[in-house]
């Protein structure tokens, strides 16, 4: 079975739950007292997708402002970016939009963007409606899910959707590492014009 390594980075405000999402996905656990990330942290998880194995190389970046300049190191060369906001913090949704702009300007042209509205267990404190977020995600052709790292809602689904958006080796008609870039150029034009 073919093994593909997919570099994925997580971006978003501090405290939105990026590390908690990764922790839930990789370890299937949740730590309410998790510390803010310093710099970035790295984890991997391999899942089967159809006839391929997808090894996610996950770069979990730090959301604190002082680490912002490091982000390009992590989104550069990424197959996908998961941009996380907190459904109980409107401000974190604005930050997400800034990340989308930055990725458009400086990110890999063909990057798959996934938007995760985390902490969907905290419905009473909701500030961002699911409809608005979904409409925004649709307008930029991004994957959209509301997640709860705490209650393990939509975490596996988030990564599954990323797997589905990555063109399979079979359908791209090229072998690993050869000509892949050329095949992926067309979506670049579409993504940057909206
Ligand atoms: N209720 C609830 N709390 C969550 C959820 N996910 C994370 N949290 C809490 O939110 C806080 C921040 O979580 P982190 O995972 O450290 O957030 P982060 O985005 O990695 O933050 P930085 O590393 O500073 O960028 C912690 O107290 C978590 O326990 C969730 O789905 N629901
Ligand atoms: Mg973190």
TrEMBL record:
**Main subcellular location of this protein, as a coarse class:** membrane
**Record has Nucleotide-binding as a keyword:** yes
Xref: SMART domains: RAB (SM00175), RAN (SM00176), RAS (SM00173), RHO (SM00174)
Quote the InterPro entries the UniProt record gives: P-loop_NTPase (IPR027417), Small_GTP-bd (IPR005225), Small_GTPase (IPR001806)
Task: Give an example GO cellular component term for this record.
Answer: early endosome
Give its localization.
Cytoplasmic vesicle, Phagosome membrane; Early endosome
> Per UniProt, what is the membrane topology?
Lipid-anchor
GO molecular function terms listed in the Swiss-Prot or TrEMBL record = GTP binding; GTPase activity
CDD domains, per database record: Rab5_related
The text of the family note is: Belongs to the small GTPase superfamily. Rab family.
Which is one Pfam family of this protein?
Ras
Full protein name: RAB22A, member RAS oncogene family
Its keywords, alphabetically, are: Cytoplasmic vesicle, Endosome, GTP-binding, Lipoprotein, Membrane, Nucleotide-binding, Prenylation
């Amino acid at each position: 079975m073919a093994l593909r390594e997919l570099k994925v980075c997580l971006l978003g405000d501090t405290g939105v739950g990026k590390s908690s999402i990764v922790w839930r996905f990789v370890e299937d656990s949740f730590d309410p007292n998790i510390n803010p990330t310093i710099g970035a942290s790295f984890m991997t998880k391999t899942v089967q997708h159809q006839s391929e194995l997808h090894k996610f190389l996950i770069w979990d970046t730090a959301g604190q402002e002082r680490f912002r300049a490091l982000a390009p190191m992590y989104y550069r060369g990424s197959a996908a970016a998961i941009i996380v906001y907190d459904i109980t913090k409107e401000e974190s949704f604005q930050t997400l939009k800034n990340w989308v702009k930055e990725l458009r300007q400086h990110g890999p042209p063909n990057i798959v963007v996934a938007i995760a509205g985390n902490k969907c267990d905290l419905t009473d404190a909701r500030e961002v409606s699911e409809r608005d977020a979904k409409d925004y995600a649709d307008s930029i052709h991004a994957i959209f899910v509301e997640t709860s790292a705490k209650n393990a809602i939509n975490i596996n689904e988030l990564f599954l959707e990323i797997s589905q958006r990555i063109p399979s080796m079979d359908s791209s008609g090229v072998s690993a590492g050869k000509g892949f870039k050329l095949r992926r150029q067309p979506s670049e034009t579409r993504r940057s014009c909206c």
